[in-house]
TrEMBL record:
<dbReference type="GO" id="GO:0004030">
    <property type="term" value="F:aldehyde dehydrogenase [NAD(P)+] activity"/>
</dbReference>
<dbReference type="GO" id="GO:0004777">
    <property type="term" value="F:succinate-semialdehyde dehydrogenase (NAD+) activity"/>
</dbReference>
<dbReference type="GO" id="GO:0102810">
    <property type="term" value="F:glutarate-semialdehyde dehydrogenase (NADP+) activity"/>
</dbReference>
<feature type="domain" description="Aldehyde dehydrogenase">
    <location>
        <begin position="3"/>
        <end position="451"/>
    </location>
</feature>
<dbReference type="InterPro" id="IPR015590">
    <property type="entry name" value="Aldehyde_DH_dom"/>
</dbReference>
<dbReference type="InterPro" id="IPR016162">
    <property type="entry name" value="Ald_DH_N"/>
</dbReference>
<dbReference type="InterPro" id="IPR016161">
    <property type="entry name" value="Ald_DH/histidinol_DH"/>
</dbReference>
<comment type="similarity">
    <text>Belongs to the aldehyde dehydrogenase family.</text>
</comment>
<dbReference type="Pfam" id="PF00171">
    <property type="entry name" value="Aldedh"/>
</dbReference>
<dbReference type="InterPro" id="IPR016163">
    <property type="entry name" value="Ald_DH_C"/>
</dbReference>
<dbReference type="GO" id="GO:0036243">
    <property type="term" value="F:succinate-semialdehyde dehydrogenase (NADP+) activity"/>
</dbReference>
<protein>
    <submittedName>
        <fullName>Succinate-semialdehyde dehydrogenase/glutarate-semialdehyde dehydrogenase</fullName>
        <ecNumber>1.2.1.16</ecNumber>
        <ecNumber>1.2.1.20</ecNumber>
        <ecNumber>1.2.1.79</ecNumber>
    </submittedName>
</protein>
<dbReference type="InterPro" id="IPR047110">
    <property type="entry name" value="GABD/Sad-like"/>
</dbReference>
<keyword id="KW-0521">NADP</keyword>
<dbReference type="InterPro" id="IPR016160">
    <property type="entry name" value="Ald_DH_CS_CYS"/>
</dbReference>
<dbReference type="InterPro" id="IPR044148">
    <property type="entry name" value="ALDH_GabD1-like"/>
</dbReference>
<keyword id="KW-0560">Oxidoreductase</keyword>
């Protein structure tokens, strides 16, 4: 079949694509290398003008792009439209701030003059997942292109229409041919591309397994790589929290993007004195969610991206129940067409079950009860992941203690974890390394050059 768009709501094959031949792939790499020689010498003003145009295209065509994403990977239509608008925001943000972020930085030394200069590296390979078909790409390509790099996108094979649409946005915005290209290829081609001398570095958002493979390939070629991998984000609710806001946000934090988000809250860690109330209200709110066609604007939970995603999720839920976890609601795939899984809640989680240690990529929540803040921190950190954490408390000392002790790349207090162009995004431990977004994100793929002028 090649590379296919399959509607996860109906199971219908919408469109198929032939993967690039080796010759076609080589031509694209040649184009990227040639484009970099020219693009790196363009001014920030030149790049910004085109990046703003890309933002304008995204905003003007948000309905069409949103529908494409909903059909291709199942996200609710309003969420898909919002993703398009957010992508435009990132384009504008880097258009406006890139020159300042990459300006020479004076360093006081004994030299007559010493400073740091940020310069582009070259063609960057981006290996991106399907769960945010536009946003994941834009948050790489906007800073990369504004820094003077060029980009090559190996998108997930189930969102080829989205991958080609993003490339088209940047061409229509006025970026030269070869500055940003989509590669319709399978995963088996990635290692060879990373080894190619025309590729300067890589970034991957995806699974641990994919991260390991890309990390090994990049290390063999001695090339920079940024890895944003899985997360099993804790959502900690202490008795001092604004309870109504905490529980309402908890449901949104778990089922955003149909529960298929690395920064979705997955483990709900609740102080014992409010745990019964939280559990009751959380379960009721999960059960009340409207599951259905993502093109229906009243739908709150659409399908998972594929039937295999349903199978994987259900297998881990069943293993956890078999190990002793207690099922409070859901827990069985929804029969009929499409890749639907119901809102599901587990509690009394055994430490040796998948629910304790694995990332559940779908609308499955786990609830843990703790006696105090120290136990909350212990449970939150008792995972190989360290991406984000959401903390709900109105006690200042408790808040500061949680911020200090949680092993995470991001801590959000009285708010669900979210990505924002203005602040760095990334994790620690098995959640990866490096940062996207903010000033750190644009500097990841630059040569941080020390300049020392003695006389």
């Amino acid at each position: 079949m090649g590379i296919a768009s399959i509607n996860p709501t109906t199971g219908e094959v919408m469109k198929t694509f032939d993967p690039l031949t080796d010759k076609e792939l080589a031509t694209k790499l040649d184009k990227a290398a040639a484009a970099f020689v020219i693009h790196r010498e363009t001014s920030f003003a030149y790049r910004a003008e085109r990046m703003i145009k890309a933002a304008e295209i995204l905003e003007a065509e948000k309905e069409q792009f949103g529908r494409m994403m909903s059909l291709e990977m199942g996200k609710p239509i309003q969420s898909a439209i919002d993703e398009t608008v957010k992508s435009a925001w990132a384009c504008r943000y880097y258009a406006e701030h890139a020159e300042r972020f990459l300006a020479d930085e004076t360093v006081e030394t004994s030299a007559n003059r010493s400073y740091i200069r940020y310069q582009p590296l070259g063609p960057i390979l981006a290996i991106m997942p399907w769960n945010y078909p536009f946003w994941q790409v834009i948050r790489f390509v906007a800073p990369a292109l504004m820094a003077g790099n060029v980009g090559l996108l190996k998108h997930a094979s189930n969102v080829p229409q989205s991958a080609l649409a993003v490339e088209d946005v940047f061409l229509r915005a006025g970026f030269a041919e070869g500055v940003f290209q989509t590669l319709l290829i399978g995963a088996a081609k990635v290692e060879g591309i990373l080894a190619d001398p025309r590729i300067a570095a890589a970034t991957l958002t995806g699974s641990e397994g994919a991260g390991v493979q890309v990390g090994i390939s990049a290390a063999k070629a001695i090339k920079k790589v940024v890895l944003e991998l899985g997360g099993s984000d804790p959502y900690i609710v202490m008795k001092s929290a604004n309870f109504a806001e905490a529980v309402a946000t908890a449901v949104k934090a778990r089922v955003a993007n149909n529960g298929q988000s690395c920064i979705a809250a997955k483990r709900f860690i609740v102080e014992e004195s409010i745990a019964d109330r939280f559990e009751e209200e959380f379960v009721a709110r999960m059960e009340a969610l409207k599951v259905g066609d993502p093109l229906d604007r009243t739908t709150e939970l659409g399908p998972l991206a594929s039937t295999s995603a349903v199978d994987d999720l259900h297998r881990d839920v069943q293993k956890s129940v078999d190990a002793g976890a207690r099922l409070l609601t859901g827990g069985k795939p929804i029969p009929g067409k499409g890749s639907f899984y119901p809102p599901t809640v587990l509690t009394d989680i055994p430490r040796d079950s998948p629910a304790y240690s694995e990332e559940f990529f779908g609308p499955v929540a786990t609830i843990f009860r703790v006696k105090d803040v120290e136990e909350a921190i212990h449970i939150a950190n008792d995972t190989r992941f360290g991406l984000g954490a959401s903390v709900w408390t109105q006690d200042e000392a408790e808040r500061d203690h949680l911020i200090q002790e949680l092993e995470a790349g991001m801590v959000f207090v009285n708010k669900m974890v979210a990505s924002d162009p203005r602040v760095p995004f990334g994790g620690v431990k098995q959640s990866g390394f490096g940062r996207e977004l903010g000033p750190f994100g644009i500097r990841e793929f630059t040569n941080v050059k020390t300049v020392w002028i003695e006389k």
